[in-house]
């Protein structure tokens, strides 16, 4: 557990070396998944006052599905649509690095404090996006941060639209509440 906590702190500090480390470590997949789950549960707990227990479950499941989908989209976009000649990556590398980019999301648990949910959610989203750009840049061996931003942005838009459609099919809003 100490190794996971250390890696999560390094990921949250945006240490490029951490993202290189987990990219090269196939055994870090379980840790990456744990980070995503912890971040999702923190988001669910932070929104539990509004979304209830059912929302906590939905938020956690959607976060895991979103991680998997966004990693796939990022992999496809980064290796097929916008690769550089130096781009070398496999799907597992992206799953691991993107998983650790969720580490800053654990602060979303602070959303349970009245009046803080909005600001905590915004700070976490921006922080996780910055971490995601670093993760993608490192995993896809990009030399350009703007290219990593573009790949992340395109992937996020497609992922958000797909997840919203799936949630809508089941009668759930993006917040994890029935509509």
Describe this structure in words.
- The protein contains 7 helices and no strands.
- The chain has 179 residues and is mainly alpha-helical.
- Helix 4 crosses helix 7, helix 5 packs antiparallel against helix 6 and helix 6 crosses helix 7.
- The protein is globular, with a radius of gyration of 16 Å.
Write the layout of secondary structure elements.
Layout (H helix, E strand, L loop, with lengths): L1 H11 L3 H8 L5 H18 L1 H34 L9 H10 L16 H23 L5 H25 L10
Helix pairs in contact: 2-5, 2-6, 3-4, 3-5, 4-5, 4-7, 5-6, 6-7
First and last CA, distance: 39 Å
Shape: globular
Structural class: mainly alpha
- Regions with pLDDT < 50 over 5+ consecutive residues? none
Total tally of structural domains? 1
Percent of residues in beta strands? under 5%
Helix % is over 70%
Largest sheet: none
Number of strands: 0
Radius of gyration, in Å, reads: 16 Å
User: Average pLDDT value?
Assistant: 88
The succession of helices and strands, N to C, reads HHHHHHH
Query: How many helices?
Result: 7
